[in-house]
Amino acid sequence: MNPKTMFACLRSMPAVPLALALTLPATVLADDGLAVVESRYDVAETEARLVEVVEGKGLKVMAQVDHQANAETVDMEMPATRLVIFGNPKAGTALMKCAPTVAIDLPMKMLIWQDGDAVKVAYNTADYLVERHGIGDCAKPVQEKVRKALDGFARQAAGAD
After folding, report:
1. What are 110's strand-pairing partners?
2. Quick check: helix, strand or coil at residue 65?
3. pTM value?
4. What digits encode the pLDDT tens for the residues 127-137?
5. What is the spatial distance between Cα 28 and Cα 100, in angstroms, rounded to a whole number?
């Protein structure tokens, strides 16, 4: 984005969200519900750190997908790209009871990939899932916990704390 376009975007943002955005430089929240955190580590180390923090909080890592290795099986190349799938049945069940369609997005996932010289971690935000599935106030008891947990997991894995 060129400086002129960036200034126009910043000028159009309300003061409070802009101030909040400036206090969270390591996490980028996109309009599409995707949060992205830049990692200090390579893809493999970031993945290992994510698994450690998730399991350390008592969640279950259900799968790890190495997209780069899968691409190699069909003679294609791509940068290091890993997906970690994990869940908390208590929080997930509460959300699914509010709106069964949220199950399409559960268990939670975090994507770790090499993006040029940077390594990034991305995940769907809790707010996005609530809005996407029309969960509304039903999710309030777990929404804030999920929001904080996901941000914490990503930031710890990336060394952004």
Report:
1. 84
2. strand
3. 0.80
4. 999 999 999 89
5. 28
